[in-house]
């Protein structure tokens, strides 16, 4: 699923099509997914299932700045966002970080190689599991919200329509909302300049997704 009118991104391997959803959509369409996810998640993959999940390759050359796509890995939605330079600049603003519950990613919600202000390997590409850490809804992606909707004084990022939890464009949770933790970062790396691989660590890294605090 994409959230812009940019050309659709395509998976690197056609065999992965069942895992990659790249249709043009709106925030309203993502809202439907937020309602549907609790029913889909009844399967609730256990640790063995997650560990056995194969990696998913994505052709990032097709993702436009400001665009988000959604893929599935280990039966969970994964958001991939290409953040434009102006969005990245705002992520270090002290006025923003003062509003965040865990601005420095001290809680174990990401591998060590993503423990930084942008919570990613490459600054422009955010990769997170798109499940709110409160009760498991799928957050909406809204990088440029109306000041009065869905949450006043929220600069944009991810918003959970179920109970109002807010995250910035590094998927860091705001203070004063039900969600206790930042959105988790799955194992991922870039085997080449055009490919993002979700579900596999970079060479030499051993991050276990089952070690995160909450998803």
Query: Which outline best applies?
Result: globular
The CATH topology name reads Rieske Iron-sulfur Protein
CATH top-level class = Mainly Beta
Query: So how many helices?
Result: 4
Sheet with most strands: strand arrangement: 1-3-4-5
| Average of the residue pLDDT scores | 82
Under CATH, the homologous superfamily reads Rieske [2Fe-2S] iron-sulphur domain
What are the segments in which pLDDT stays under 50 over at least 5 consecutive residues? 4-45
Would you spell out the secondary-structure blueprint of this structure?
Elements: E1 20-21, H1 27-40, H2 47-52, E2 56-59, E3 68-73, E4 76-82, H3 85-90, H4 94-97, E5 125-129, E6 140-142, E7 157-159, E8 166-167, E9 188-192, E10 195-198
Antiparallel strand pairs: 1-3, 2-10, 3-4, 4-5, 6-7, 7-8, 9-10
């Amino acid at each position: 699923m994409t959230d812009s009118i940019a050309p659709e991104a395509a998976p690197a391997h056609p065999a992965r099509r069942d895992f990659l959803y790249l249709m043009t959509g709106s925030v309203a369409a993502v809202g439907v997914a937020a309602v549907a996810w609790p029913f889909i998640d009844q399967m609730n993959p256990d640790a063995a299932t997650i560990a056995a999940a194969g990696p998913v390759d994505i052709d990032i050359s097709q993702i436009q700045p400001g665009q988000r796509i959604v893929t599935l890995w280990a039966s969970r939605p994964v958001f991939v966002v290409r953040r434009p330079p102006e969005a990245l600049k705002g992520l270090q603003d002290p006025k923003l970080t003062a509003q965040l519950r865990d601005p420095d990613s001290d809680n174990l919600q990401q591998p060590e190689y993503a423990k930084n202000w942008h919570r990613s390997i490459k600054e422009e590409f955010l990769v997170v599991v798109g499940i709110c850490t409160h009760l498991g809804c799928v957050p909406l992606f809204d990088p440029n919200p109306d000041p009065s909707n869905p949450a006043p004084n929220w600069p944009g990022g991810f918003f959970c329509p179920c109970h109002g939890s807010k995250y910035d464009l590094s998927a860091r949770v705001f203070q004063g909302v039900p969600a206790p933790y930042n959105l988790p970062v799955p194992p991922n790396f870039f085997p080449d300049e055009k490919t993002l691989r979700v579900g596999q660590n970079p060479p030499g890294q051993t991050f276990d997704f089952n070690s995160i605090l909450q998803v």
